[in-house]
Amino acid sequence: MKADRNANFGTQCIHGGLQPDPQTGAVMTPIYQTSTYAQSAPGVHKGFEYARTGNPTRTALQQNLAAIEGGEHGICFSSGLSAMDAIIRLFQPGDEILASDDLYGGSYRLLTAVLGTFGIKSRFVDMRDAAALAEQIRPETKLLWIETPTNPMLNIVDIAELTALARERKVLTCVDNTFASPYLQQPLELGADLVLHSATKYLGGHSDVVMGAVVTRNEELAKRLYYLQNAVGAVPGPQDCFLVLRGIKTLHLRVQRACENARRIVEVLQNNDLVANVYYPGLADHPRHEVAARQMRDFGGMVSFDLKEDTMEAATEVMKNTRYFTLAESLGGVESLIGHPASMTHASIPREQRLSVGLTDSLIRLSVGVEDAEDLVKDLEAALAAAVTVAG
Questions:
Q1: Residues taking part in catalysis
Q2: pLDDT at 143
Q3: Is 0.85 topped by the overall pTM?
Q4: Domains of the chain (ranges plus CATH)?
Q5: What are the helix (H) ranges across the chain?
């Protein structure tokens, strides 16, 4: 089923690109747990021949993802990093990627320690200043890799401004939209060529699946990515696809509740004497608040803050004393998570580089979930108070 471009976002989450199962009428897409498909003659089949190449559950998910991102093509992979790897495989040795200087540590590791050994160069730059970025683009620059909001400093990049610059220079753009989710931000509408998601996060939404996805309107790029999906084989299984399809049906509800809870958390952190800085694009004094307000529906469920006592030990004392905020990797689930980027998600980035973008040893990242906001507030306040008691 083609997506109805006139439908609103919540309707797209539930119906976009989907239809009842043609064989049984099942309203929810079935899990087609099969590795191969019967053929009536060699090469004559019903659209599926081998499950690495295609699976009906995966096809339904890919159509749904395209609908909610305002794209034409969705391509799913076994993880966010395998999706990123497929995108980088579109390029050749000697090509260059310009990436945000504040980005997920796994993305940094893939670009440097893995793909860098194959001759694809990466440089990490501040993408908030388009004029300065324009001076960084060279003839060998083929891709702008954009995160916004960035991980973990919640910096905001003007997507429309950078995609216009890239088109002028004949450079492709990919936006990692994991932090925002399609509910809050649609980079294709702002000119991006590709959008990437770690579907593990807000799309799945329940901390029970690992998956990546790419969405595009560009048919040529889609063909090349479908080819890589099949040729390399980093594909998700049908049950994982089913879980993400299920998660997307409540994406708009979950993310909106997370945004509401995050605003309450930010208010409390700003008024706590132990907190040095709060990083959240919804704050009026955030340096790119106006850009965020222009390109996002709301400001998200991710919050970072650092402590006046800027030590890893101080951060550890806070994190080990929470009850509802679970100390864990990842983000975007219904449960609230707390993490320490310097030693967890961003440990692969050299400390000097982390510090250069403001990622201090005491920085704490919150993925605010959908629990009762007042319980989350009490949890954080108690953890901060316990840390003071221990330090004292």
A1: 52, 104, 176, 201
A2: 98
A3: yes
A4: 9-248 (3.40.640.10), 253-391 (3.90.1150.10)
A5: 9-15, 56-68, 80-88, 105-109, 130-136, 159-168, 181-184, 219-232, 238-248, 251-270, 289-295, 312-319, 351-356, 373-391
